[in-house]
Structure formats: structure tokens, C-alpha cells
Amino acid sequence: MGISVNGIDIDDADIAQELPHHQQAGNPLKQAVHELVLRRLLLDEAQRLRLQADGHDALVEALFEQEVRVPPADDAACRTFYAQRPQLFRSGALVEARHILFQVTPEAPLELLRTTAQAVLDAIKLAPERFAELAAQYSNCPSGALGGNLGQLSPGQSVPEFDALLFRLEAGALAGHLLETRFGYHIVQVLRRVEGQAIAYEAVQAQIADRLSRAAWQRAVHQYLHMLVGRADIAGIELEGTASPLVQ
Predict the structure, then answer these.
(1) Beta carbons within 10 angstroms of residue 89's beta carbon
(2) Which residue, of 43, 130, 142, 210, has the greatest Cβ tally within 10 A?
(3) What's the start-to-end Cα distance of the chain, in Å?
(4) Cα 196 from chain centroid?
């Protein structure tokens, strides 16, 4: 494919070996190439810094440990997170919800997919009783056969952005906009809510601190990768971002 990083070629054999690890990505080939480029950048940087470790994965970990550091989340940040997201910290909270998924795939033009999803959402706003019918017709989720019904969900069962929307909507409410996740575009409606009991801040402080620290670390790693990409000699590919399983 004519791709090189700092003068080192990434050939088709490398890509073929990496590709099976990314079959769940929206574009497996693109993700595999990005992963190889980023790994090469990190290994080159570790070599430049003369780091020592047993194996490539350990070398990347040693590089991150030395070069990417973030302070632990303090009590004020944790309390703010807790206060702003009370729906995440309730024991026994449940929602019964349904959705229509417009799945993003390499074959689906993104703009057409979004336009179609918006048109279906507009139709449901005009005729809410059509939700189940349109879910059966359009949804790329197996729940479409059930009118989009996902059953009862508790906090943490869905991807974060879906979870946050579910536990923000009132019972019977249809989200007024499309929700975008890594799976695609969703039309979301909450049918029923069970509020549960609030969990005391002290019981979840450690959990919140860990979540905030991991998020801060991931942001720092992405910034570090952007820096490496910016100063590297990369030929044959243009990196659109630095999202990578390396830093999940």
C-alpha cells in the first residue's frame, strides 16, 4: 500500500496480520493501518528514549508510564461529577426503553444514513404510534423485530452516551434529536422509569475518581499521540485522528 513511518515500511503482510483484530470496527482495514502506524511511532519513540522492556506491548507501556502522567482526580472534581450526574448513582434504577438503530458500515454513505434517520425521527414526532412499525422497517438492531424494545436497563449496561441519555429522559419521552454512538445513529424513547434510591457520595467516590483519572489519562495519551504524529515522517496515509485500541 506504500505506507511508511519514519522510513520504515508497513507492508501488506503486516496489515494482513493486524486485520483480524479489528473486524468489529466500522472500517477494519483503515483501523488496522492506523493501529500499525501508531504502534510504529510509539516503538520508535521508545527506542529514541532508550527504554528497555520485554516485548513491544511492555515497551509501549513503559513509554506511556514515563511520558504520560496526569494528576489524580481531586475531591472537588469528584463531587462535581457526582452532583451533575445523579442519575448514574442510584441503586435499583431502571428504565424500559426502545430504539431504532441506523448502523454505520463502510458500505453506508454517512450523510445518507443520517438523513434517513432524521426523516424517520421526524415521522415519529408527527405520529408517535408508528415507532414500532418504523423500528421493524428500519432498525439494524435485532430489537427491531420487537418494535425496538430493549427491555429493562440499569445504569452501566449501555455505552456511556446511550446510558446518559436513557437516564436523563422522562418516562414516555422521545429524544428530540438523534443520538450518535460508535454503533451508528439512534432514535431513543424511554417507556418507563424506576427511580431507585440515591447512593451516598462516599460509597462511590473511589469509583468516580477512577473514572475521571482514566478519562484524563486517555485525553493525555491522545494529545501525546497527536504530538508524535505531528513530528513524524508518515507517507502513504493521512491520519484523521488518534483513536486507537492502544489507548482504550
Answers:
(1) 21
(2) 43
(3) 27
(4) 27
d(CA 209, CA 215): 10
Q: How far apart are CA 247 and CA 19, in angstroms?
A: 18
Q: What letters, b where the CB count within 10 A reaches 16 and e where it falls short, cover 90-99?
A: beebbbbbbb
Task: Identify whether the C-beta of residue 38 lies closer than 8 Å to the C-beta of residue 225.
Answer: yes
- Copy the grid coordinates of residue 111: 450523510
Residue 161 in 3-state DSSP?
helix
Classify each residue of 169-184 as buried b or exposed e, where b means 16 or more C-beta atoms within 10 Å of its C-beta.
beeeeebeebbeeebb
Q: What is the pLDDT of residues 171-198, one digit of tens each?
A: 999 999 999 998 999 999 999 999 889 9
- Angle, helices 131-138/110-126, rounded to nearest 10 degrees: 160
Q: Are 6 and 42 in contact (CB under 8 A)?
A: no
